[in-house]
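Memo to structure team: turn this sequence into structure tokens by end of day. - J.P.
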Amino acid sequence: STDNIFEEAFPILFYLISNSSPEANITLIHSLSILSLHSYVGVLSHYQTIITLMQNLLSNESEGIEFMKNDAIECINSLMRVSPDHFRPGLESFLPLILNLLHSKYYCLIAASINCIGNIVDLYPEDVKSLAPQLLDEMANYALNDSLPILQEITELFKQGYSVDEVNEEYGENTVDKDSLEISGGAFMVYASILAKFPELLPQNFERAVKIIQVLSVSIFSTHAVCFGVEIMMPAVKQIGFNVPELMVSILTNLR
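Reply from structure team:
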């Protein structure tokens, strides 16, 4: 069974992670993340050890450690999904680390952190209620990422038939990065989730939500995300009794 595989593999993975280079650890932590997601009993028997390991990785500011943090965040997502109740005691110590990584210079870490915050909001809404206004501000800023001049220019090039390689050649290597293109859409879905969990915050944030929807609805990078975000948010909009903008109605119609 997967639990037996986990029991056999974990001591080896733990030893290697503790004694290997950052480059090797990327693969090792990714393997641990996958195993954790599919091994409930095995994970629970080593839960605190894995939590401590991930916490140490995320708080480590050493050179070359940044790229390991992406897989560490994925491992945290796995731990939350395997057992939300077991993870709850560590939530308070992990949240500042995840919020700090929102300001990383690496797009992959920003995208992973946004996804992790989305999972936290979904699983622990009452635990993060006091942080909801701050999280809304953070997610709104990233949701408007697609309105940056460089991404608008890249959008025009794609519309003209340029390939990803041609755009990267025009602007510099890795300008068009999968993670950077998913940040706006991912952030809006988290923004919508927060408003869905806390409808009382909708009145002071509705105008900003509509602005984000207007930007993302014409972005070739975030079309699907804005559709799902609107669908997530709509019950809260109706609960508060707002008049639903025509744009949102149109998006929902297209989604169906």
